[in-house]
Design a protein that fits this description.
Elements: E1 13-14, H1 20-39, H2 42-64, E2 65-69, E3 73-78, E4 81-87, E5 91-97, E6 104-109, E7 113-117, H3 122-132
Antiparallel strand pairs: 1-2, 2-3, 3-4, 5-6, 6-7
Helix pairs in contact: 1-2
C-alpha cells in the first residue's frame, strides 16, 4: 500500500533532496571520458570533464542545500544558514520543465527570473508550488 504526502499550506515543508540529475550527468560523463581517452583529443576530454565536474557540483548542491516552503516564502538554506528568501507575493509565474523527467524549475519574480535544476523531490515541489503560489492562467490569442 502506498501513501501520498500532501503538505498543508500552513506548515513549513522542507523538500527532500533528489540526486537523480547529478548522478545521471556523472554516469553519462563516464562513456564520454572513455571515448575521449580512446580518440586522444583534448577537446573531447575537456567536454567530458566539464560534464563530470558539473554533475559533481550539482551532487554537492543537492547534499548541502535545503529548500523550505513556509507560509510566506520559499527559503533556501545551506546547513542552518538562510542564504536566500523568495516571498510568494513577489512571484509572477513558475514552471517545472519536462514533466515526465523534471530537470529544471523556473520562476519569475517582479524584478528577476530564476532557473534552478531539480535537485529536490519534484512531486512535493509541484504540490507546494500549487498550494502556495497558484499559477495565473493567461489567455492566448
Amino acid at each position: 500500500m502506498t501513501t501520498s504526502f500532501v503538505p498543508s499550506a500552513s506548515t513549513t515543508v522542507q523538500l527532500t533532496p533528489s540526486y537523480t540529475l547529478p548522478i545521471v550527468l556523472v554516469i553519462a560523463a563516464i562513456p564520454l571520458l572513455l571515448f575521449s581517452v580512446w580518440i586522444g583529443g583534448a577537446i573531447p576530454f575537456g567536454i567530458a570533464s566539464l560534464y563530470t565536474l558539473f554533475g559533481l557540483f550539482l551532487l554537492f548542491q543537492a547534499a548541502t542545500l535545503r529548500l523550505q516552503f513556509s507560509e510566506t516564502a520559499l527559503d533556501i538554506y545551506r546547513g542552518e544558514t538562510l542564504i536566500r528568501n523568495f516571498p510568494y507575493q513577489d512571484w509572477q509565474n513558475w514552471q517545472i520543465f519536462w514533466h515526465k523527467v523534471p530537470i529544471l524549475f523556473y520562476f519569475k519574480e517582479i524584478k528577476s527570473i530564476h532557473f534552478l535544476p531539480i535537485l529536490f523531490d519534484p512531486k512535493t515541489l509541484k504540490i507546494c508550488l500549487e498550494q502556495r503560489c497558484p499559477k495565473i492562467e493567461t489567455k492566448q490569442a
